[in-house]
Amino acid sequence: MIYKSLTIAGSDSGGGAGIQADLKTFQELEVYGMSVITAVTAQNTLGVQAVYPMTVEAVEEQLHSIAADLQPDSVKTGMLYSAEIIEKVAEFVEKNAWIKLIVDPVMIAKGGASLLQDDAIHAVKTKLMPLAYVITPNIPEAEVLTDMKIETTDDRMLAAKKLYAMGAANVVIKGGHSNDQDVVLDLLYDGEQFFEYKSPRKRTNNTHGTGCTFAAVLTAEIAKGRTLDDAVRMAKKFITAAIDEHLEIGSGHGPTNHWAFRMAGLSIR
Ligand SMILES: Nc1ncnc2c1ncn2[C@@H]1O[C@H](COP(=O)(O)OP(=O)(O)O)[C@@H](O)[C@H]1O
Ligand SMILES: Cc1ncc(COP(=O)(O)O)c(N)n1
């Protein structure tokens, strides 16, 4: 059986995040990767130097090519940039019943550059979230989407409930940006229960692309039919190994190591 996953996201010329991180991750997990590019960024470990959004027609043509010939087993969205692109993506997701939809609501790059226009946030909430099997915001993204401040784990639980009420079938709020100095907690809410995934916090600047990579693991594992709990467990192991063995490349926020999980011979349990 060949599982196929589609990523709909921006290109990171530096290779650490976006489409590049997603395709590397799919490959590591033996899932055939496909891509629809929404924007081209001129980017390296120092930051984002420029953003060139694709036209809605260019996004539509790519989506059409996939839908006409290569039905994906799961679909991930990353940087979508504008309300128009979000609306087009939502239309295709609905029309083609791409029900295993993983929405990583990318808004701001680590260096501060905006990857989503301000007026597109409404479209994320109203068009995309109701279609999501799982949404994977980091803490600042969850704050924007819920209009609340998140400081404690209780705040995060409340935010997860709010995101669930907005239509996402499952919510993972990642903990990379929390103020806990020792532990990084990723929190899953499935509408009934909370599940916690913890790892030691690594003191490193080399976390470029962690969010993309985490959500890409979920996408690949969900394509294979894994439960969400198994998929999040796998994502946590994969990203922890990728951060532990980060690559000393560039002079800014370096990328994670997508082959570390495989090289360490790690498995899901
Ligand atoms: N310093 C760190 N040490 C260990 N794991 C981390 C660290 N920073 C982030 N992670 C993990 O990387 C993933 C992405 O987290 P986060 O930084 O919150 O998202 P984003 O990259 O979207 O901002 C999560 O699974 C989180 O637990
Ligand atoms: C094209 C693109 N997409 C997404 C991100 C976010 O990266 P991160 O995973 O570090 O939040 C990025 N920097 N560039």
From TrEMBL:
Annotated InterPro entries: HMP/HMP-P_kinase_dom, PM/HMP-P_kinase-1, Ribokinase-like
UniProt keyword annotation of Heme present: no
Enzyme class: transferase
Domain Pyridoxamine kinase/Phosphomethylpyrimidine kinase: residue ranges: 12-257
Pathway(s): Cofactor biosynthesis; thiamine diphosphate biosynthesis; 4-amino-2-methyl-5-diphosphomethylpyrimidine from 5-amino-1-(5-phospho-D-ribosyl)imidazole: step 3/3; Cofactor biosynthesis; thiamine diphosphate biosynthesis; 4-amino-2-methyl-5-diphosphomethylpyrimidine from 5-amino-1-(5-phospho-D-ribosyl)imidazole: step 2/3
UniProt-listed CDD domains: HMPP_kinase (cd01169)
E.C. code: 2.7.1.49, 2.7.4.7
Family statement: Belongs to the ThiD family.
Protein name: Hydroxymethylpyrimidine/phosphomethylpyrimidine kinase
